[in-house]
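ok new one. same drill as before - structure tokens go in, u give me an amino acid for every spot. 596 of them this time. try not to just spam alanines like last time pls lmao
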């Protein structure tokens, strides 16, 4: 099977092209010579089976960031039949150096000048034929977003692969790259022949930036837009969730229970109330996750995400962080694990470590499921979005406090270099592909934890068999009672305590665990069962503790791997537990003191 590597700088549309080429059917794979996973997809071009590897976005093969080291190790250890280089047509004067380096290494390559549709708006004129002569490789102008030039690019990929029967290795990259004076001369000649910029009038991007990056109103606008995003997630996602919930309940009554009716009571209840009930409760929130990722695709692909880093950089610098840390925290809204892995682009070890302490406080999609359920069960429809937004503000506050406390231990001197791409609205196809890809990753990553968690909680809830399920005499009841001296003062009862314990494995288990613990045959369902036992003060304290307490086991494992220190990972666990208890205690006892 022939192998293609997709290479490019950040913000060039490399992932958009990769998704268009592969249909977003990528998975992660391990590769010889490197210690991290990369996206890989198998496709068919003509009659050829092709494996496509999406390499991290880098600026220079001689760079010092971990992502640049990953790319070097991949090219030195894994033979490829073709390198597809993705560059931004409007910024070719700053990006063409990467293509020149690939030429120096003698690798078979194809250069795709992406965002060709935007070039005229910025007065950019590119001569692909002149560039192709200088680089000795095919050059295609295209738009991965709209598909312009894609068919031509795909045919050239097939042609180049048919001519390249044997894969090639780069050897030692540092030794094979040419000297700097000659490299600079080659780049100057290439740009003189193939790239020209003429003056342009005021663009939409500059006009929008005057408003959205305003020194006074920029941040209020940003948080206002974030609130609108959460309102949209709740307004659109909740009806979809209710519809899916009715569907899974109907399927349980019409198919699952009749099919398993022959089983004895214990295994029947384990499979129906435990396994199916817990998984169905989590599955009902898939529409919410899907809507959330559509909103995040708009924020990220529009170019506004990088501007949020610019807006927050001055404030984050006072905390020992920078704008990139803030962006990664926003990315942590989807999942903390890839957000922490994204810190490899930072060269400062201290900045990476401090950011690792901060990111786990981001309200990830697994916690979002729990919070939307609890806010729906305990708060009115008009108040629920405000409660949800307040939890996001608490996550920011926890991150700020953490950075402020630990910045002296992890001092950072690395300057921020930030590129602000032009504003562009993602296509419907982009949004749906992104949402589907992220939702699929969420399901693939979570199901094994959910299955284990809900089965374990059901067993704890129903053993020993000679006592009433979920009573104080069961294993879960005994665990919950043992934790009351710690969790009782923050309003968390024994049943909620058990869900929190298993939530350390994966936060997805919390909601599935609640479904099992509060299993009920009454019409009010899970929401009604919980609402009968706790009030809004206890519910908010529970959500606050869930937001701040220990990150899931996968996040802890990634922190340990990225920091290369078990002590640092344990520090993160200990600090999050302490902060969660103090915050919940302050809220719960304060609310009770005020008469709520």
């Amino acid at each position: 099977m022939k192998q293609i590597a997709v290479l490019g700088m950040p913000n060039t549309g490399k992932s958009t092209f990769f998704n268009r080429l592969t249909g977003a059917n990528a998975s992660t794979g391990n590769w010889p010579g490197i210690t991290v996973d990369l996206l890989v997809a198998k496709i068919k071009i003509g009659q050829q089976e092709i494996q496509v590897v999406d390499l991290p976005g880098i600026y220079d093969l001689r760079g010092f960031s971990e992502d640049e080291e990953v790319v070097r190790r991949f090219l030195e250890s894994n033979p490829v039949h073709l390198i597809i280089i993705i560059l931004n047509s409007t910024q070719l004067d700053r990006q063409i150096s990467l293509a020149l380096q690939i030429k120096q290494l003698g690798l078979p390559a194809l250069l795709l000048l992406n965002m060709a549709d935007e070039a005229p708006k910025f007065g950019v004129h590119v001569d692909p034929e002149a560039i192709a002569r200088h680089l000795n490789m095919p050059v295609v102008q295209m738009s991965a977003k709209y598909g312009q030039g894609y068919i031509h690019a795909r045919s050239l990929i097939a042609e180049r692969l048919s001519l390249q029967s044997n894969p090639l290795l780069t050897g030692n990259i540092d030794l094979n790259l040419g000297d700097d004076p000659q490299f600079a001369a080659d780049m100057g000649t290439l740009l003189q022949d193939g790239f020209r910029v003429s003056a342009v009038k005021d663009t939409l991007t500059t006009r929008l930036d005057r408003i959205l990056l305003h020194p006074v109103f920029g941040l209020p606008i940003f948080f206002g837009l974030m609130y609108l995003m959460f309102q949209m997630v709740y307004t659109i996602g909740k009806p979809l969730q209710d519809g899916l919930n009715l569907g899974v309940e109907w399927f349980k009554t019409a198919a699952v229970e009749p099919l398993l009716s022959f089983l004895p009571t214990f295994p029947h209840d384990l499979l129906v109330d435990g396994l199916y009930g817990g998984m169905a409760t989590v599955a009902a929130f898939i529409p919410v996750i899907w809507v959330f990722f559509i909103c995040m695709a708009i924020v990220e692909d529009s170019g506004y995400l990088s501007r949020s880093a610019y807006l927050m950089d001055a404030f984050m610098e006072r905390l020992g962080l920078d704008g990139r840390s803030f962006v990664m925290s926003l990315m942590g809204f989807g999942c903390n694990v890839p957000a922490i892995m994204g810190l490899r682009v930072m060269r400062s070890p201290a900045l990476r470590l401090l950011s690792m302490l901060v990111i786990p406080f981001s309200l990830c999609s697994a916690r979002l499921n729990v919070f939307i359920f609890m806010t729906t069960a305990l708060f009115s429809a008009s108040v629920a979005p405000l409660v949800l937004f307040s939890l996001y503000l608490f996550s920011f506050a926890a991150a700020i406090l953490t950075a402020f406390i630990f910045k002296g231990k992890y001092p950072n001197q690395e300057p921020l270099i930030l590129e602000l791409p032009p504003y562009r609205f993602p296509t419907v196809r982009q949004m749906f592909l992104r949402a589907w890809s992220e939702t699929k990753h969420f399901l693939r990553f979570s199901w094994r934890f959910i299955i284990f968690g809900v089965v374990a909680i059901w067993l704890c809830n129903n053993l020993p068999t000679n006592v009433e399920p979920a009573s104080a005499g069961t294993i879960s009841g005994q665990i919950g009672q043992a934790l009351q001296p710690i969790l009782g003062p923050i309003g968390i009862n024994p049943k909620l305590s058990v869900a929190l314990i298993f939530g350390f494995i994966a936060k997805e288990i919390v909601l599935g665990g609640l479904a099992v613990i509060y299993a009920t045959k009454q019409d009010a369902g899970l929401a009604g069962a919980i609402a009968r036992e706790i009030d809004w003060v206890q519910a908010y304290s529970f959500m606050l503790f869930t937001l701040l307490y220990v990150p899931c086991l996968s996040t802890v494992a990634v922190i340990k791997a990225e920091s290369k220190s078990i002590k640092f990972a344990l520090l993160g666990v200990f600090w999050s537990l302490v902060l969660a208890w103090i915050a919940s205690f302050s809220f719960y006892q304060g609310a009770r003191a005020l008469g709520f």
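The longest helix spans residues 218-259. and btw The chain is about 60% helix and 10% strand.
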